[in-house]
Amino acid sequence: MLTLEETRLLIHGTHKEFDKIMEGTGNISEHDISMLKDGDLILRNKKSFICLFYHAGIYCGNSEEVIEFSAKLQQGWTAVASCSSSDVDGGVTKAHVTNFIGEKPYIVLRLRYGIPKDFAQRVKVAMKSQKKYNLLDNNCLQFALDLLGLSTQSLPERQ
């Protein structure tokens, strides 16, 4: 279940463990990309009539990729499924940071005390994940926080 801190992060883009590094209105610049570091939490605005939350991804560094966990339906990726409270198939993907942000407003947050030493290994393991997505129990933010070593428990496999 989402904690109060996680809910604040999804709605307001603030959390006691992070400093805000930058924010923008979309189309991140090459200069801003050069300022990103491994493990930066990128919150992309997902506000619409359907869903009022940010979508979270983690910057993976030298290849300028962002790893993310999203809901997946038979017809492809969709914002509607990510706002559902039922379990749906989830998928882990990487996208170039410019494609992840697109034209949407975004916030970049950085952990105050640095990322786990095994961050690269965590990303490798996460890329093979086949977990179920659930807005309340197993979502993009919880996935991102787990990669950064902040989750209170690892995300459980669902049957």
TrEMBL record:
Pfam families in UniProt: LRAT (PF04970)
Superkingdom per UniProt: Eukaryota
InterPro entries listed in its UniProt record: LRAT_dom
Domain (LRAT) ranges: 37-146
Protein name per its UniProtKB record: LRAT domain-containing protein
